[in-house]
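Thread title: Can someone regenerate the structure for this chain?

I was given the following input by a collaborator and told the matching structure tokens would be attached. They weren't. Posting the sequence so someone can regenerate them.
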Amino acid sequence: MTISNLKLNEVTGKYIITSELSSDEIIETAKKFLNNRLRRGAIFNSPTQVTDYLEVHLKELEHEVFYMLYLDNQNRLIDKEILFTGTINAASVYPREIVKSVLKKNAASVILAHNHPSGIAEPSQADKLITTKIQHALNHIDVSVLDHIIIGENTVSFAERGLI
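Best answer:
Regenerated them for you:
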């Protein structure tokens, strides 16, 4: 990965900005770094890796999206994608389509995520219900749901709250 405004200090392993960057350029650069970290085969060592990536990609969206990370049996990333796109306060999610997608990717487990454009990351009853439906659907094909993360002004993890 090369970014013309940055130079790697080979001694410290840190980057030096070589020219002025706008805030949009900084955000785009951060997205490139996170995408590079979260490439096929990346192993998830901490929930922070996942939430950092998701926050950059989902936090500022003005509409709700439902996102999935597909993992193999060693929790290495197979793929990631937006499965459903909605309106400012809802996205229709279909467990049948999730099962089809998981089978196509040959995933052993998944991490679900979606954003709340309102900024309030607290899970709604609908969020809890769809998570349970997805878990049940995926249990039939021996695929685990490791977490469901909601991105708003802060981040809520169903796993950390004991909801999964």
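Helices lie at 23-37, 47-58, 95-105, 125-139.
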